[in-house]
Specification:
Blueprint (H helix, E strand, L loop, with lengths): L2 H13 L1 H28 L29 E6 L8 E3 L2 E8 L2 E8 L5 E8 L17 E3 L2 E5 L4 E6 L5 E6 H4 L14 E3 L2 E4 L8 E5 L5 E5 L10 E5 L2 E7 L3 E5 L6 E6 L14 E3 L2 E6 L4 E8 L2 E8 L11 E3 L2 E6 L7 E6 L5 E5 L5 E6 L2 E6 L3 E6 L6 E7 L11 E3 L2 E5 L3 E6 L3
Antiparallel strand pairs: 1-32, 2-3, 3-4, 4-5, 6-7, 7-8, 8-9, 10-11, 11-12, 12-13, 14-15, 15-16, 16-17, 18-19, 19-20, 20-21, 22-23, 23-24, 24-25, 26-27, 27-28, 28-29, 30-31, 31-32
Length: about 425
Amino acid sequence: MNAEPLRKSRVRIRENSTTTSRFRIGILANSAAFLLLISQAAAGDWPQFLGPDRNGISKETGLVDGFPRSGPPQVWKKEVGEGFSGPVVAGERLILFHRVGNEEVVECLNAGSGKGIWKFAYPTNYQDQLGKGDGPRSTPVIAGKNVITLGAEGMLHCLDLEKGTKIWARNIVKDYDVPQSYFGVGTSPLVEGKLVLVNVGGKNAGIVAFALDSGKEMWTATGDGASYSSPVATTISSTRQAIFLTRQGVVILNPVTGREMFQKRWRSRDDASVNAATPLVIGDQAFFSASYKTGALLLHLKRDGADVVWSNDESMSNHYNTCVHQDGFLYGIDGRQELAPSLRCVELKTGKVQWEAKNFGCAHTILTEGKLIALTEKGDLVLATATPNAYREKARGRILEDGPCRAQIALANGLLYARDQKTLGCWKLQK
């Protein structure tokens, strides 16, 4: 190798070091700004049931402290079909899952304008045996370039987020011989790594893991029936855990292999009952709640199991709404939907009730900036302070009229998305 050209090259680099440094600084600054934009966009997404971490907590900041009786400013609205499936948002794309005529329809909309981007539909014959509505109950999941939906009849689809084309589909009710349930299929799938986890409810396949890229069955576990609760995942002592509240009770397993790590029978003695609220993970603890004289259960999660911290039927009985947590206190709906339930604040450590706002009604809640944002079944948007001292309502406005409003609300990039049985709307909550 000739050393002279190399020596000259080194000299040239030294001579232009100032220019090069400035150039590199410029690149780094632009890269940092770009990464900041990406992180801000990611932080603003609401890609699945109960938000980014499946706990009802939003990282949004700079939101309003109040609004008039008419509600916050509406950005857009769109007529929709029936269902209790909540909207989800990733970047500029919003996914709506509803029933129109005899089809279950997945629509991709522009989150800022409500304008359609693509639509995917397939036939359905589902009829609710108790007359509680024939639309889908499960909320979609956006995972990278994939959209996962689960219909009321058990049609599990994976679609391409950009184009809306079908990647794969499974009929989980048919494939796993699932017994008929009260209100159809209602659990929302969990995407964990390269797997889609579902409380299917088959007699020999209570929980099933499907490959995200192909829909292939990867493992099955338990013989538990399907609930209307949705699974969550967490890491305890460097061990990943998937947590389910099935029809029979609590199941904790390894999401990669399906190996059961903990199981506890925990449900109402009344067969005409459901487990519907989603497990709430708070550090190394998991909170469960159900109505029908069941109550609440707090577990301390361990590397390979769990211990009961407390359990009673006096603190909190969630019918289908999931609590949110802040600074050692739970905020949630206590009582059966048809019996004028209340909004309660409960101390997590002891289960002690701090306050109760009676006759609040069922409501989906989001916690952000120390505030509770709740949409009641009647269509009232409520803003309250999340404090254990007393119930302090800051604002209330009627934003929807065609209830019951049972779909989970979504908050993304300063915009609130909510729906009833006829309308999906978008409201500005950013100051």
